[in-house]
Amino acid sequence: MTQSHLNETAEADLGYGQLFGILVRQRYWFSGIFIAVLCATAAITLKTKPTYRSTMQLLVEPNYPQKQTLERTLESSQTGDDDYATQLALMRSSQFTEEVAARLRTDYPDLEGADIEQNLGLSRVEAGGEETQIFAAVYTDGNPVKTQKILETLQQVYQEYNLEQEKLRLTQGLAFIDEQSETARDRLIQLEDDLEAFRANENFIDPQQQANSVAEALDRIEGERRTLRAQYEETQARYGALQGQLTRSPKEGLIASRLSQSSRYQALLDELQKTELTLAQERLRLTNNHPDVEALQEQRQRQLTLLAQEQQRVLGLNSAPPIKSGESLRQTGQLGKTDQDLVDRVLEVQAELRGLQARDRALGSIEEELRAELDRFPKAIAKYNRLQPEVEIQRNTITQLLETRQALSQELARGGFNWQVVEPPQE
């Protein structure tokens, strides 16, 4: 085993020695190759123009931070990345590079937007493995002054564009608000005209309130009529009881009451009674053909005629009963105190009954009118409930639009993205 190890060591030493010998023998060849490569590299380096880089950093952040809930955090974050990708694509667009080239055309006549676009690099700056809101702009060119001028001009173009966008958002927002306000005003005028016409045609201000008022009035009328019916039944019972106490019919009692209150009728009735008494006495001693008896009979007939005339005057032609005899006239025209009191009470109850009936008829007419009016309300209420909320909605809309317009300048100025220079162009 020791002999084998010695042989291997000898072979290794022989290999290194042979390699060194080869290098020594070929040293001139290797030196030539090395010198040739070195010369070629130097020549290329001398012929290649130097390149310079200018860098700039911009802070691109939304003026309104996105409000995220726990449920929408992932979705909102994705939306934010998409927005920044859009901003990055926008900043790379030719509208900016062409504008920069146009502004520097005097100093660099051959400069084109495509050249700037080709040498411009834009990317988001990373910190801690995450992309930030800072964009880095790097421009590469063989002229150090040119690279810095291009980035300085690009900075101006970016900031001017950002300011123009803010003004554009403000102008468009105000125009939109004005358009919506005008539309809302026109709609409000139309709705108010419709509501006014509805109130004029239906004679309603608020049909729901008026319907409630009519319903309450109808309930009161129905309650009053129930009370009246109860009073009428009670009064009718009293009337029947009084009629049972009278020895005459109510009509006869009324006639007797009125005649007994006539002083002339009572005076004529007294004279008639005296004449009849004298006539009865004369008939006891004289015949009917005797001149004195005939004279008394004629006197009695004249008195009956006068009584009949007075009765018609007091009672009226249609109410006067037929005259049969003086006894009937006395019965008709005279009442005792008790009968007179009963008649007076009957007359009072009759008047009360007539009053209750008249009141009930009047309330019945009012009830019919209220029911007819109440039947009009359902359709009117439905139409009013369509018009009135729309009017209120349009009024609230106009108020909100006016309030929004007052704050719109500040709000829209804060809209979109704000491009701020974090690090100005530098070599």
UniProtKB/TrEMBL annotation:
InterPro entries: Bact_polysacc_biosynth/exp, LPS_length_determ_N. GO terms for cellular component: plasma membrane. GO terms for molecular function: protein tyrosine kinase activity. It is a multi-pass membrane protein. The chain crosses the membrane at residues 28-46. Keywords: Cell membrane, Coiled coil, Membrane, Transmembrane, Transmembrane helix. It comes from the Bacteria. Its main location: membrane. It holds the Pfam family Wzz. Residues 18-102 form the Polysaccharide chain length determinant N-terminal domain. The keyword Iron does not apply. It is found in: Cell membrane. Belongs to the CpsC/CapA family. This is Capsular biosynthesis protein.
